[in-house]
Amino acid sequence: MTTSVLIVEDEPEFLRRFSEAVLTDPELSLIGTAGTAAAAIALLQAQPPDVVLLDLGLPDRDGVEVIRAAVQGPRPAEVLVVSMFDDDQHVLAAIEAGAAGYLLKDALPASIGASIRELRSGGSPISPGIARRILTRFRLALAPAHGPAAGVRSVAAASPLTDRETELLRLTAKGLSFETISELMGISPHTVVAHVRKIYRKLAVHSRGEAVYEATQLGLL
């Protein structure tokens, strides 16, 4: 039997790509598409699919409402989020609502069909950057749970950043330029950039603003 798929996407180009991926895969069947949360929920009630391929950024309502409707219905469907949103708020809200996978649109795997099959076989397809952020948060949340001594060492002991990187990020959070940070820390601009790249990689972010936000959320600043 084929896996039935409902695509919820309001951007025409992505809707076309996702539809073609499903229609050309012999193991999948496309039972409908929707460009709004309201239309998606109506389709879920009329003909529940096996899998919902969902964009969170819908024009009428938060896509999280569609996740809840999909997983809490009389015939629950599995939800694979495919979104541009990579911030903690959207990722955690989607997972808490019941999403079983989370892929970023700018880092899509070669085969959407393979991701859907992974989902159906009990896996959780997640973009590497999202997976790293989830693991980092999980690791830091567990750090104080290993006895009083661990609590005394504080979150800093579990920080993925070195002391030097943390210092640099604190200066960045104050709005200082890389040139000024270079002078204050007594290192070359090239070294500052190298540290910044390592920080981005460790926190799975792509900008200074995201790095400061993520570090603050994790209690690193």
UniProtKB/TrEMBL annotation:
Annotated protein name in UniProt: Response regulator transcription factor
PROSITE patterns to which the protein is assigned, alphabetical: HTH_LUXR_2 (PS50043), RESPONSE_REGULATORY (PS50110)
GO-annotated molecular function: DNA binding
Pfam name, any one: GerE
Any single biological process term in GO: phosphorelay signal transduction system
Entry keyword set: DNA-binding, Phosphoprotein, Transcription, Transcription regulation
Residue ranges of every copy of the Response regulatory domain listed in the record: 4-120
Residues recorded as bearing 4-aspartylphosphate in the entry: 55
Domain HTH luxR-type: from-to ranges: 154-219
InterPro entries, per the entry: CheY-like_superfamily (IPR011006), NreC/VraR/RcsB-like_REC (IPR058245), Sig_transdc_resp-reg_C-effctor (IPR016032), Sig_transdc_resp-reg_receiver (IPR001789), Tscrpt_reg_LuxR_C (IPR000792), WalR-like (IPR039420)
PANTHER family assigned: NITRATE_NITRITE RESPONSE REGULATOR PROTEIN NARP, TWO-COMPONENT RESPONSE REGULATOR
Record keyword Mitochondrion present: no
Organism: Ramlibacter ginsenosidimutans
